[in-house]
Recover the amino acids of this structure.
């Protein structure tokens, strides 16, 4: 997996998938038009309407505790990935947001104390596979436990759908999650 | 050292020793889904699922609209092509909210991992002694994880640590299991059970019937928890045995199991609770909100659409009428519940009170039936209250128990149901 590099955008605690991250009513009204890119235009809109326009492709979201709480709606990680964010690093992630992010192909990291280590606008470098996050601005490297190989593979392929398609096309469905 | 019910279930399912934080993989026992998309299988070019007998489809329960049947059409077509037996398909007219349908039919088996019920209220199955979590799903490009699960039977999760919630005391009249959960949420906050399995136990839980336990577990995730669970007892086993002849092995926590945190709460002096919009975790005693004018009221959803909930509501609505400016929607969770409520005379009682009774489904909880308009104020037994959940983005949603909603619908404002007994 390629090493990611970008700027940190710092957010608070308990961001609800359907409230702060991307409004549920809007998602519902888009029906089948809810592509990742369209959802991306509304990412964080209830708390920071200009967010998707201000970021550069590859930037990071750094969040507090219980990131992605609320419902199991996968539109949250999809909106974040769709607006160009390369990864989310949080004090803690809601388990369902964690699962949904991996399956959407959005790298996510839990790091207790991250808000003390990263400030708004810091330049970060993330080696997801190796479990290494470097704050280039503060010149500090943090280590975290990487995902098992069989989950990394899904993110490397792009998302679960692409991964599944590949397994079907190469007649290796038996190797799903192996 | 002893093990928790969660560790035991995941150990059995994965065939591995498990510890909190481990990633585990397993084959699911029953897969209960509410949609099945023809397009995905077409695109993948596969029409062979891992085990057609294990796949159960509950049509229409989720969207709950009988006027838009494209999803039903697609599901029926795919089911036929995939060889899923007709007896595994619950159609409109015999189904409802898929969680309740699954529990009613005994598909939710104690001692198993339940991932299906593609929905944030999947922890409801924890009430039957299952480790329950939703599958990851989206509409635009494949149903994502459900499709993968249908093809392989396999799913994964990260093993959660367990927190023990020991609940004691005798509930006051008109105080319900829903109030118990919301009070806990108010007490521990939106990340109070972060990443953990909430294991509800103690004399108060033992006292509860199956319906009340569903209301207790249903909303577990709003404390930041992975899910909720209750150790199965005689009530659980008797309930499942009467509905499914499939063998199962209920598992329970060992007395010396290890918990990352233990809470001990007495509910004897707790009154009705209300969740205040727009955040899910702002919980207040009803007395602080008494007098808040309402336009709409809703009794239903997976959290409070059971027969027990219908009885609680009926007790307050009997011989009374809903306030003239208020529209009350009462939606039983399933056709079975509606049918039992009708036999008990509850449906007539609701009609006499002036309530609208749509077909069993998630319905108004997700704004599919009688959605909120403009800046209407609603008091509901729904699961969520974020802006737009039940319709208009400007509407306000207060969440409360069926007793509080019924009493408030009569009064036209939020009231304490204990005063209306």
């Amino acid at each position: 997996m390629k090493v990611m590099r970008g700027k940190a955008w710092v957010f608070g605690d308990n961001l609800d998938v359907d409230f702060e991250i991307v409004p549920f009513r809007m998602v519902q009204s888009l029906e089948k038009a809810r592509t990742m890119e369209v959802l991306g235009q509304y990412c964080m809109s209830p708390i920071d309407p200009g967010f998707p326009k201000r970021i550069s492709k590859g930037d990071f979201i750094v969040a507090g505790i219980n990131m992605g709480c609320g419902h199991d709606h996968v539109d949250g990680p999809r909106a974040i990935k769709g607006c160009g964010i390369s990864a989310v690093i949080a004090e803690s992630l809601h388990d369902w947001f964690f699962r949904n992010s991996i399956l959407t192909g959005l790298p996510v990291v839990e790091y207790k104390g991250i808000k003390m280590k990263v400030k708004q606008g810091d330049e970060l470098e993330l080696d997801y596979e190796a479990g290494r996050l470097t704050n280039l601005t503060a010149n500090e490297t943090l280590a975290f436990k990487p995902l098992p190989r069989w989950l990394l593979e899904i993110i490397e392929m792009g998302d679960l759908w692409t991964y599944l398609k590949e397994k079907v096309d190469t007649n290796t469905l038996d190797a799903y999650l192996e | 050292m002893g093990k928790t019910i969660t560790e035991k279930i995941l150990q059995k399912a994965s065939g591995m020793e498990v510890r909190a934080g481990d990633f585990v993989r397993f084959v699911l026992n029953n897969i209960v889904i509410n949609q099945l998309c023809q397009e995905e299988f077409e695109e993948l070019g596969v029409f062979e699922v891992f085990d057609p007998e294990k796949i159960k489809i509950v049509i229409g329960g989720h969207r709950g609209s009988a006027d838009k049947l494209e999803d039903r059409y697609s599901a029926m077509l795919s089911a036929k092509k995939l060889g899923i037996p007709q007896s595994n398909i619950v159609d409109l007219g015999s189904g409802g909210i898929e969680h309740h349908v699954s529990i009613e039919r005994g598909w939710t088996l104690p001692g198993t991992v339940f991932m299906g019920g593609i929905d944030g209220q999947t922890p409801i199955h924890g009430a039957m002694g299952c480790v329950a979590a939703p599958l990851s799903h989206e509409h635009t490009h494949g149903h994502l994880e459900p499709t993968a699960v249908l093809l392989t039977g396999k799913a994964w999760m990260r093993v959660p640590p367990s927190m023990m919630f020991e609940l004691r005391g005798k509930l006051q009249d008109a105080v319900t299991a829903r109030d118990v959960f919301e009070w806990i949420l108010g007490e521990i906050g939106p990340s109070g059970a972060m990443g953990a399995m909430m294991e509800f136990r103690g004399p108060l839980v033992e006292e509860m019937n199956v319906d009340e336990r569903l209301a207790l577990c249903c909303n577990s995730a709003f404390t930041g928890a992975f899910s909720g669970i209750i150790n199965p007892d005689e009530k659980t086993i008797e309930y499942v045995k009467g509905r499914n002849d499939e063998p199962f092995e209920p598992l329970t926590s060992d007395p010396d199991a290890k918990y990352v945190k233990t809470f001990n709460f007495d509910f004897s002096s707790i009154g009705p609770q209300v969740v205040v919009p727009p955040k899910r975790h702002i919980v207040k005693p009803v007395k602080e909100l008494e007098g808040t004018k309402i336009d709409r009221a809703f009794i239903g959803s997976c959290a409070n659409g059971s027969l027990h909930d219908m009885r609680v509501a009926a007790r307050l609505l009997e011989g009374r009428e809903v306030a003239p400016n208020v529209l009350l929607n009462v939606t039983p969770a399933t056709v079975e519940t509606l049918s039992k409520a009708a036999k008990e005379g509850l449906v007539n009682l609701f009609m006499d009170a002036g309530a609208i009774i749509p077909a069993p489904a998630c319905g108004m909880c997700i704004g599919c039936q009688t959605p909120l308009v403009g800046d209407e104020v609603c008091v509901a037994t729904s699961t969520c209250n974020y802006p737009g959940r039940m319709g208009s983005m400007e509407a306000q949603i207060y969440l409360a128990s069926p007793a509080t909603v019924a009493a408030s619908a009569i009064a036209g404002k939020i009231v304490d149901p204990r005063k209306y007994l």
